């Protein structure tokens, strides 16, 4: 099971207004364990960055001037995510921007090269209705350390999302049992499972004496109505 945790930073809120991706990061996880493999790139958007967006991620156009364009890294990016299950917080936003970038190159949509897309924001809302479910809130809820997140950043956010997702779906760990290595079970000659032998622990002399003394006290207090003595007499 190969999963890719993905995040982007952009020049603004909508590709329909001509906004572009300026940072993209993808972190690989296989069988619910991070592999250490990732894709990360800053991109020259060839347009201005909205002031509101810059306040969120802190990336300036000056910093991006010598960075590659999306078209320059698209092939490498697609090869990295191909066949994986994309896991994204607020997936419609990032998928919309990725598809916009790919459409400018006359390339197919991102979900055509990936196995599926999971939106962790939708998942979080189902698990915690009526609560804050942004990435910072989820980090706090699941005790994921996000102390280094002073600004949004695609690579850091993708890594934090991976930790949050593991915590959110903890019960799935039980599904990863290796079915190729079952425990050996030896049946008896009749084909039935063997019964475990019963272990008999006998009372010591001191314990028997203490038990008899207790029954005597009960018999005295109940004026001869101790049921254990009556059972033994019967």
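^ structure tokens above, recovered residues below v
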């Amino acid at each position: 099971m190969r999963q890719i945790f993905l995040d982007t930073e952009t020049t603004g809120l909508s590709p329909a207004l001509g906004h572009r991706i300026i940072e993209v990061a993808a972190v690989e996880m296989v069988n619910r364990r991070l592999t250490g493999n990732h894709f990360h790139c800053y991109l020259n958007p060839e347009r201005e960055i909205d002031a509101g967006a810059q306040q969120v991620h802190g990336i300036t156009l000056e910093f991006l001037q010598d960075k590659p364009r999306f078209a320059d890294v698209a092939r490498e990016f697609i090869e990295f995510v191909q066949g994986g299950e994309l896991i994204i917080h607020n997936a419609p936003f990032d998928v919309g921007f990725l598809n916009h970038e790919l459409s400018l190159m006359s390339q197919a949509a991102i979900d055509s090269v990936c196995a599926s897309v999971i939106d962790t924001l939708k998942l979080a809302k189902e698990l915690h209705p009526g609560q804050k479910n942004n990435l910072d809130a989820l980090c706090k809820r699941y005790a994921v350390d996000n102390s280094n997140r002073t600004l949004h950043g695609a690579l850091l956010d993708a890594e934090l999302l991976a930790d949050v997702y593991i915590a959110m779906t903890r019960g799935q760990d039980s599904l990863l049992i290796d079915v190729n290595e079952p425990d050996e079970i030896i049946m008896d000659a009749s084909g039935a499972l063997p019964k475990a032998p019963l272990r008999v622990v006998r009372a010591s002399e001191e314990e028997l004496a203490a038990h008899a003394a207790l029954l005597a006290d009960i018999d005295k207090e109940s004026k001869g109505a101790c049921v254990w003595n009556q059972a033994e007499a019967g």
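The radius of gyration is 32 Å.
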